[in-house]
Amino acid sequence: MKHNFASYCGIPKGQLRMLRWNGWAAERVFEDAEDGYQFEAAGAMKFDEESQSWRFGLQVKLGVLGWVFCGFGVTDSDGKALVEVARNKPRLVDLNDQNERAKLYDYIVDVIKTCYQEGTPRPAIGFSLPVVETSGMETTLEKAEAPTLPATV
Question: Where are the domains of the chain?
Answer without folding.
Answer: 2-140
